[in-house]
Specification:
Elements: H1 2-26, H2 47-89
């Protein structure tokens, strides 16, 4: 039983090594003028104004959302205070 397990391990190791060698051989060699530095592609110049517009709209949406949440919380606090004041005046 142990011999069969060792043979299977040897087969797996051998096939893994063959796969690794095959992948090394299939890689494309670097070009002569390639310095090895990979820089991201520059964005198209016409996209810059679009980016700014999207960022401004997003900023206003976030600002407006925060203002809306703030006003909701303020009005809820006012309602709670008013409700407590009425209960206090009624003598609990």
């Amino acid at each position: 039983m142990a011999i069969l397990a060792n043979e299977r391990i040897d087969q797996v190791v051998t096939s893994t090594l063959h796969a690794a060698r095959a992948s090394e051989l299939s890689t494309v060699p670097p070009r002569g003028d390639d310095d090895g530095l990979d820089f991201p592609l520059a964005t198209h110049p016409d996209r810059e104004p679009f980016k700014v517009i999207v960022l401004v709209i997003t900023a206003f949406m976030i600002w407006g959302g925060l203002r809306l949440i703030s006003s909701i919380l303020t009005s809820l606090a006012w309602v709670v205070r008013r409700h407590r004041a009425r209960r206090h005046c009624q003598g609990k």
